[in-house]
Write a structure and sequence with these properties.
485 residues; alpha/beta; seven-stranded mixed sheet; six-stranded mixed sheet; 14 helices; 22 strands; globular; binds nicotinamide-adenine-dinucleotide
């Protein structure tokens, strides 16, 4: 079986598509229909090490290319990606479940990182440092960090890869990539784009397969100098601990638990529609999506009523069908987590104001669906207020003062994104400065942009993706002190 030109061999090493060294395959499932889409090569440690060797061999030639040459490959890949937007979006929806319109948006967003870094490739500068010694000249030169291992999640299976490949390739690094086992096909589609763009062999290698054994090999390989990871805080901590022996550099984009604060001076209609989009796009499986909404007491009832009306109208179904706004969850594990969080909230006294169950099983809703849910009567002890639910469930709580809202928002070990709705510019500044988050949206819930530094603080990670800062993750600034005669 093949899907839009993608066949079974999904491992790409040194310019060749191969099966796993151990011959193993696994199934990719469509979460909307539970159908087996196709099999993919399930690689392990052996494939992972071969990929590192290929990336190491390709490094001297790739890093020696001019910035303009590297930029050209990225620009060509950007163009091809936009030409193939529809095909790539169909692959994405088929293996991941999000509505096709969202997949098209994700492909465009992924491509925008290739375009932006195609431009930024030409602007990686070092600097002259004024010396305190007349007989010396001090300066820095930027150099690629070397072989990069990129590990990515299933929730944005295309853009999370492009966000890493853009700056890594622009900086002159070579890459070994491992996508999530739920969504290998989007990664294959993206790597095929680079192959078609003429990227030299070994510069980008793809190993689909077993996370633990591939991860172990890359942690052990001395030549892997940076691990750039997007995924759960739990796996991020494991990578952090295990990379100590080789003192590898780490860039970590981890979990979040984003609060939305809605103040009584907000534009309520705007706050309702944007909160809805933030929470329910990608069926709530977004690292920066609203996990908790706090609404000021005086407008609480009004806000809840308006939000619930909209939530009840969301059209759920197979993302390939027209008009669908919310698709299935990624797998059974995700479904069980959502169900357990809702049950925990009910046990601790929450009320279900919308949803709170699985849709009745009809022909079209066989997959991992969960009805969009609003919970009220919330207390801070509930799991939904402490952990990522990663599903279409939103708890809403009221607050009385600005101080209380800030305190509640910061009551978490995560620090990825947070949002504020207010029309008062003084309040916006005050609140923004006190929120302990790497990203803050003020009357905005879509902060991600290729040109801006995206990243969390606290247990949401370290390092940035996007913008000038995103490039610096892949660069070593070498310092030179030169004595003059
Ligand atoms: P996950 O941590 O389970 O998996 C992420 C990746 O790590 C996958 O490719 C997986 O195969 C791999 N992996 C798992 N165990 C590994 C191991 N022992 N060694 C090496 N690799 C291993 O996360 P997920 O469920 O795929 O994604 C959802 C999580 O990602 C959520 O917590 C979400 O918030 C987070 N996320 C964060 C951002 C961000 O920018 N901060 C963006 C998207 C998703």
């Amino acid at each position: 079986m093949k899907i839009n030109g993608i066949k079974e061999n999904t491992i790409f090493i040194d310019g060749v598509w191969r099966e796993a060294a151990g011959g193993k395959t696994e199934a990719v499932l469509n979460p909307a229909t539970l159908e087996h889409i196709m099999s993919f090569s399930y690689g392990d440690e052996k494939d992972a090490r071969l990929a590192v060797q290929a990336a190491k061999d390709a490094l001297p030639l790739w890093s020696a290319k001019t910035a303009r040459e590297r930029s050209g490959y990225l620009y060509r890949a950007y163009q091809l990606m936009m030409e193939r937007q529809e095909d790539l979006a169909v692959i994405l929806t088929t293996e991941q479940g999000k509505p096709l319109a969202e997949s098209r948006g994700e492909i465009a967003s992924a491509a925008s990182y290739l375009l932006w870094y195609a431009e930024e490739a030409n602007r990686i500068y070092g600097e002259m440092i004024p010396s305190s010694n007349k007989g010396k000249r001090l300066f820095t030169i930027p150099q690629p960090i070397g072989v990069v291992a990129a590990i990515t999640p299933w929730n944005f299976p295309s853009s999370m890869i492009a966000r890493k490949l853009g700056p890594a390739l622009a900086a002159g690094c070579t890459v070994v990539l491992k996508p999530a086992e739920q969504t290998p096909l989007s990664a294959v589609g993206l790597v095929k784009i680079f192959e078609e763009a003429g990227l030299p062999k070994g510069v980008l290698n793809l190993v689909t397969g077993d996370p633990a054994s591939i991860g172990k090999a890359w942690l052990e390989e001395q030549d892997v100098r940076l691990i750039t990871f997007t995924g759960s805080t739990e796996v991020g901590k494991h990578l952090m601990r295990s990379s100590a022996d080789n003192v590898k550099k780490l860039s970590l984009e981890l979990g979040g638990h984003a609060p939305i604060l809605v103040f009584e001076d907000a534009d309520i209609d705007q706050a309702v529609s944007l909160s809805l989009m933030s929470k329910f796009r990608n069926a709530g499986q977004t690292c920066i999506c609203a996990n908790r909404i706090y609404v000021q007491e005086s407008i609480y009832n009004h806000f809840v009523k308006k939000l619930v009306e909209k939530v009840k109208q969301l059209k759920m179904g197979n993302g390939l069908e027209t008009g669908i706004e919310i698709g299935p969850l990624i797998d059974n594990h995700a479904l069980e987590k959502v169900q357990s969080h809702v049950q925990d909230a009910i046990n601790k006294g929450a009320s279900i104001t919308a949803g709170g169950n699985r849709p009745s099983l009809s022909k079209n809703l066989k997959g991992f669906y969960y009805t969009p849910t609003v919970l009220t009567g919330i207390t801070d002890e509930m799991l939904v207020m402490k952990e990522e639910t990663f599903g279409p469930v939103v708890p809403i709580q009221s607050f009385t003062s600005e101080e209380e809202a800030i305190e509640k928002a910061n009551l978490t070990s995560y620090g990825l994104a947070s949002y504020v709705f207010t029309e008062n510019i003084n309040r916006a500044w005050r609140v923004m400065e006190q929120l302990e988050y790497g990203i803050i949206g003020i009357n905005d819930v879509f902060p991600a942009a290729a040109e801006a530094p995206f990243g969390g603080i606290k247990q949401s990670g370290q390092g940035k993706e996007g913008g000038r800062e995103g490039m610096m993750e892949y660069v070593e600034m070498k310092y030179i002190s030169m004595g003059l005669k």
